[in-house]
Amino acid sequence: MPSSSASSSRKKRGASKNSARGGWISLWPLLLGIAVTPLTVRAASIVALEGPKAFALLYPWVVVLRCRALHFPADLVGRSSEWMLFLQFPLYGLLMTLTYRAGRHLRAVIVALIVHFTGLVAIVLLGLLGQFPQ
Fold first, then answer.
1. Residues 6+ apart with CB under 8 A from 72
2. In this structure, are residues 41 and 103 in contact, taking their beta carbons and an 8 Å threshold?
3. Structure confidence at residue 11 as a pLDDT band (50, 70, 90)
4. Which of 19, 55, 75, 111 is 20 to 30 A from 83, comparing alpha carbons?
C-alpha cells in the first residue's frame, strides 16, 4: 500500500510541474516582446539616421513590406509597415511562447532568431533583384 500512495503522489507532483510550465511563467517571451517594443521603436528612430540598411537590421520585416515586388498600394504599404513596426517583436514573443510551451527553451530563442534572419535574407535577395525600397 505505501508504494502505491508514493507513486500517486509522484504523479500529482509531475502534473503540477507541467501545469506550472503552462501557466503565466510560459508567457515571459510574449511579455518581453511587448515590453521591448517601445525601446526598439526609439532605437529605430536613432538607427534610421544611419540610413535604410541600418534600420533594416532592426526591423527587416518592415522593409520587406515596403518592397516594390509585392505590388501593394502605397496607402496599404504605409499602414502595414507602421503596424509591423509595433507588432514585430510581440510576434517574435508569441512565436517564442508557442515554442517555449513545448518545453524547448533554447529552441524558442533559436526559432525567433531564424525568423528575424529570414527577414534579413529576404532583404538581401530583394536588394540583388533591385527591388530594395528607397
1. 65, 80
2. no
3. low
4. 111
